[in-house]
Structure formats: structure tokens, C-alpha cells
Amino acid sequence: MPGSVRERLIDAANELFYAYGLRAVSVDKVIERAGTTKVTFYRHFRSKDELVVAYLEGRAAAERDGMGAAIAHADGDVDEALRLIADHTGTAACTASFRGCPFINAAAEYPDPETAVRKTVDAHRAWCKSAYEQLVAPLDLPDPAAVADDLMLLRDGVMVAGYLGDPTTVGASFLRSCRAVIRGGAHADALR
């Protein structure tokens, strides 16, 4: 198996945790999939929760890279960036292995906000909200933070809809909804 033992453990966890759930997958299953031993596992991770955090950090890095690439490729065109993000989301939701948002799933399994897992989830969600706020900043909206909150709500909804609903429609629906939120945010003062 290529890669370091730590990488193999994280890769195995990524596959198993996402497919079956964090609590349902034992350390022994991850060890078996990675082709290593329990002693070696504990050299790299002090606990299963530490492995869960590493798994989520990897998922967060991938999502950040994807959003960052979409924003960079759009070169200041907010609508184009949202289109790219929506296209990617729609494509991901249509894969047979799609199980929704790993961060929403993790939060459901780790309800205590003081755990390292929930703190990792919260940190990523804060980053996402900040990214949406930075994305809409060029539009000079009256309340970009509120628009970012709304975009996060849509993002959460598309993750659930992609898993529970018709995944072929989520990308287009997400883009339409994002555009409506931004138009509404631009006219927020008129509605008050």
C-alpha cells in the first residue's frame, strides 16, 4: 500500500467513516482496512476521536481547496464562482457514494459542543461562512454577513437534499437560491 501509515489510516477512516458513520466504524475496522496494527495506530493517534478530527480536517482542506479554486477561477465574478460551486455540489451529490455533508453528519454523532470533533466542525463552518462573506463582498451588499448566513443555510440544505432528495436537481436549485438570496440582500433595506 502506498503512502505513510498515518496517510493510510486517514484514507481508510475517510472511506469508512463517510460511508458508515463515525460511531459505527471501530478503530479495528480502520486498522484492518489500512493494513496495519493496533500498536501502530496508537503511535499515530491517541484515540479514535483524534482520528475523527484528522478525517474532518482532511475533508475541510478539500472543501476549502475546491471553494478557493472556484473563487480564483471566477476572478471576481461572484455569479460565476457560485455557478462553479453549485456545479461541483450537484456533481458530488449525484455520485453513488454521496452521504451528505461530513460535517453535518459528524455534528449529529457528536452533539457535545466541547468535544474536539465538534470544535473541528465549528471551525470549518466558521471558515465557510467567512468564505461566503468574502465572496459577496464585491457586491457591496448592506449586510454581507446576513447574506453569508443565508448562503450557509442553503449549503446545508443542498447537502441534505442531495442525499435524501433528487440529487440531479440540487446544483441548479442551489444556484437559483443563492442568486435569490443575493438579490434579496441587495434590496434588504427596501423590505424593512
Automatic annotation (TrEMBL):
Lineage, highest ranks first: Bacteria, Bacillati, Actinomycetota, Actinomycetes, Propionibacteriales
Keyword Ion transport set for record: no
Residue range(s) of DNA binding per entry: 26-45
Transmembrane segments annotated in the record for this chain: none
InterPro entries recorded: Homeodomain-like_sf, HTH-type_TetR-like_transc_reg, HTH_TetR, Tet_transcr_reg_TetR-rel_C_sf
Name of this chain's protein: TetR/AcrR family transcriptional regulator
Statement: the UniProt record of this protein carries the keyword ATP-binding: no
SUPFAM superfamilies: Homeodomain-like, Tetracyclin repressor-like, C-terminal domain
Record keywords, A-Z: DNA-binding
